[in-house]
Amino acid sequence: MANALSQPLTPWSADHRHQLDRDARSIFILLPRSAVALANVVGSFHPDSGIDLSEAFRDGRGVLAKGRLELDEGVEVSYELTLCDAASDNAFKLELTIFDPAVDGDAGELHRGVVTLDSPITISLFGDGWTIALIEEPITEDEYGQRQGSVCPVCTSDQIEGGRIEVDGGGAWQPIACNHCGSTWDDDFKLTGYSRLSISREDAAND
Ligand SMILES: [Zn+2]
What we know:
This protein is mainly β.
């Protein structure tokens, strides 16, 4: 089964990613930030510049990301995102290939299409359609801590809301939800020591 349908939705910007919700059969592929940077750099090269990078990205050596996607309940595929030399318009692009994980090799290829970070694509597999968007990986835990958790790690919106803090042993956590993109996560807290100690005279006398 080859590629059935591939078309961009317009208008689109990364700020609109919350428009894609999973109920509408929308899938995100998270791209590591380093991959985004590499794709942007390579994508900016044009053969007219005299630099031919096509060889470097043949044979899967330009793989930026690969993994599994659950398209729908019970419908799982694997994907590979590679830099490709799109000969048609003299530019380097990202190529998304979707495989049936149960079938080995090229025979398992279900879809292949050129995608960009700027617009999602719609694919049709097994008679159903899904929208796939590439987005940058969420900010790291370290970055999140440095920003003192003031933003959503996925869309960086500050429209976030915290639930009840739960304490257990040496730690605590608070469920947080983003009202902008719908992501949810826990803020984690660690016991670091004590302060404002007041010694009870009774206890001291009993020693
Ligand atoms: Zn968000």
